[in-house]
């Protein structure tokens, strides 16, 4: 009996609360909506708070309460996982209130929202590039921020994703060349990777890929161009060995250079 009464009491409070919230949504009292939205936000009831904030944001533009309202409005999207709107709203907040005490965290959360929008490497990386720019901008603006280390970690993750994307493109070009015979774009793609990502952990693969592409380009050329292109491939082997003579790809590289040397020796005139 006591348990039933308690459940009935709780249900009554819940229904009353819901009824009051629905009335408030229909109300024209912006002040009450602001107070309720702030209370709900502080209680972590973000969906309910958002519905109220969406109704009053236009009414508070230019007013003293607008700064806090716009911050919690942006952060509500962030807490709900709507990173597209969170990034946009935090960006607006930073532009509107550059002297705010919350400018640092707003700038960071805006940048992190764009980071969260970054897709897997096989998809278009426009959002990844944007996230990288936003995070780097945050680091430059707030070099002593407590969020700097996290921002650097996120930057490293996004850069890695772009490197993987570029490397996979080069590898795919090599596979395509093996079918259609157009090796030059593959060589250039590996070459561009090496130039564009000087500190990448994937440079070893790019150096080997370029050498392998040049080798295949040579042996699939018309007879009059084979020797010249084999010599070019040897230069790429030398570049690979200069940096990665102790790598796990050395045996594969040595196997290819052995074939190159054999082919060139066969063309040398005997005395």
Automatic annotation (TrEMBL):
Residues 31-176 form the Outer membrane lipoprotein BamD-like domain. Coiled coil: none annotated. It holds the Pfam family YfiO. It comes from the Bacteria. InterPro entries: BamD, BamD-like, TPR-like_helical_dom_sf. SUPFAM superfamilies: TPR-like (SSF48452). Keywords: Cell outer membrane, Membrane, Signal. The keyword Membrane applies. NCBIfam families: OM_YfiO (TIGR03302). This is Outer membrane protein assembly factor BamD.
């Amino acid at each position: 009996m006591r348990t039933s009464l308690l459940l009935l009491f709780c249900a009554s409070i819940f229904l009353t609360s819901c009824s009051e919230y629905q009335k408030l949504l229909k109300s024209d009292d912006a002040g009450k909506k602001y107070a309720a939205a702030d209370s709900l936000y502080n209680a972590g009831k973000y969906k309910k708070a958002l519905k109220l904030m969406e109704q009053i944001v236009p009414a508070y533009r230019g007013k003293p309460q607008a700064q806090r309202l716009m911050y919690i409005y942006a952060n509500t999207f962030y807490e709900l996982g709507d990173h597209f709107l969170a990034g946009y709203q935090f960006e607006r907040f930073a532009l509107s209130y550059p002297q705010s005490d919350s400018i640092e965290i707003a700038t960071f959360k805006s940048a992190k929202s764009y980071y969260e929008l970054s897709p897997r490497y096989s998809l278009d990386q426009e959002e990844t590039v944007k996230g990288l720019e936003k995070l780097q901008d945050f680091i430059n603006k707030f070099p002593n921020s407590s969020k700097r280390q996290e921002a650097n970690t996120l930057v490293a993750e996004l850069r890695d994703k772009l490197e993987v994307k570029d490397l996979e493109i080069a590898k795919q070009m090599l596979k395509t060349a093996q079918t259609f015979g157009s090796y030059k774009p593959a060589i250039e793609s590996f070459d561009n990777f090496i130039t564009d990502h000087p500190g990448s952990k994937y440079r070893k693969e790019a150096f080997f890929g370029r050498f392998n592409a040049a080798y295949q380009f040579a042996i699939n050329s018309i007879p009059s161009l084979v020797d010249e292109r084999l010599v070019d491939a040897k230069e790429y082997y030398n570049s690979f060995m200069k940096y990665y003579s102790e790598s796990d790809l050395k045996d594969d590289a040595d196997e290819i250079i052995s074939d190159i040397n054999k082919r060139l020796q066969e063309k040398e005139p005997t005395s």
